[in-house]
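FW: tagging you since you asked about this chain on Friday. Here's the raw sequence from the shared folder, copied in full. Didn't touch anything.
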Amino acid sequence: MKFATGQSWSIKNIDEPNARIVIGRIEPAAQLDGKIVFHCTIFDAVIADMGDGPESLIFGHIPFTEEGFSASVETLLESDADTAEAFDQGYYQWAEAQGGAFTGTIAATLSDAMQAARD
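HL: got it, structure written out here
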């Protein structure tokens, strides 16, 4: 598959039919030995009750390795999609911290994050 900034993809193994991931940046990360990192926003993949009833969560910036990303997406939905408002702030925090990237699939990563939040 050919990936590019601005693409919106459906996500494999997610129960929410409107779930999608948007690529905001693709770049090598020196702190990860030059591995390619996909910086993304995830929309509508997790529905959670935050006290006021169920709502769809947005993950403004979340980095994945190329392998984790490509193993997780299914259908190209759009080629000129926007990331969330919080994307740039999250990206710059990640860059300043020389952060890592998730190597697993998107579905597994979100499942682990939600379980950690519940614990």
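FW: Helices lie at 66-70, 87-97, 106-118.
HL: agreed, and The mean pLDDT is 91.
FW: great, closing this out.
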